[in-house]
Write a structure and sequence with these properties.
Length: 237
């Protein structure tokens, strides 16, 4: 596979997520009703071909893509802290996107756009090669049982696809609290020829935890349960 080609022939037989319930709180529903039409889109509803990000955001700016924004606790803070970037969040969980819009509304941010659906389809079919400045994957579903490891998002094919969408010098930043998954991430990213580890000289190649990445309740719980957080930061060659 030539991951630098615009059409990467990546078709998966399994996906890295499960469909969860869509029941929302009153506040989440109101946020959805107020903002989704302007800020969000279903991946399956996107026009064929590359997404016109400059038109959607109303400006040209560096683009950050976060895959799996969850309930938006971290994402909203990151968006507010970086008004100079166009921030894309892709997530499959509708109440999570609604909660993110609620958080973003309170922080009065204007540089956030949301996509609901499969991040791989978004990357493959709607984002051009070299169009992203950074891709963030924080605490993806670890699928801890060995028979489910094939469902993990970070695989050679997906990382090759992500790398092809990064600009030269662009960053892939991952974080996980599952040791086995961290080791898999390191192996996969280190084996991708389009990427280099910015912290290859550090012990194990792990990146120091960035002070700007907010500590969430989820991360605090991982610490309480004795799981070490690992950050990986790779750069597009």
């Amino acid at each position: 596979m030539n991951a630098s080609d615009q059409q990467v022939p990546f078709r998966r037989t399994v996906v890295s997520y499960v469909q969860r319930g869509e029941r929302m709180t009153v506040g989440q529903q109101r946020a959805w009703d107020r903002h989704w039409a302007d800020l969000g889109s279903e991946v399956t509803a996107l026009p064929e071909g590359p997404l016109d990000l400059a038109s959607w955001f109303g400006r040209t700016a560096p683009v950050v893509l976060e895959i799996g924004s969850g309930m938006g606790e971290t994402t909203a803070q990151l968006v507010a802290a970086q008004p100079e970037v166009n921030y894309l969040a892709v997530e499959v969980y509708k109440p999570g996107l609604a909660q993110l819009m609620l958080r973003a509304e309170k922080l009065e941010v204007s540089n956030l756009r949301l996509l609901r659906g499969d991040a791989i389809v978004l990357l493959r079919d709607h984002l051009e090669p070299g169009s992203l400045d950074e891709v963030r994957i924080y605490f993806p579903d670890p699928w801890p049982k060995k028979r489910h490891h094939k469902r993990r998002l970070v695989q050679p094919e997906s990382v090759a696809l992500i790398a092809s969408r990064l600009k030269p010098g662009g960053v892939l930043h991952l974080a996980t609290d599952w040791e086995n998954y961290a080791e898999q991430m390191m192996e996969v990213c280190s084996g991708e020829s389009q990427l280099r580890n910015r912290y290859a000289d550090e012990p194990g190649g792990w990146a120091p935890r960035p002070e700007w990445r907010p500590v969430t309740k989820f991360e605090n719980r991982a610490h309480e349960e004795g799981r070490e957080i690992r950050d990986l930061i790779f750069e597009r060659i």
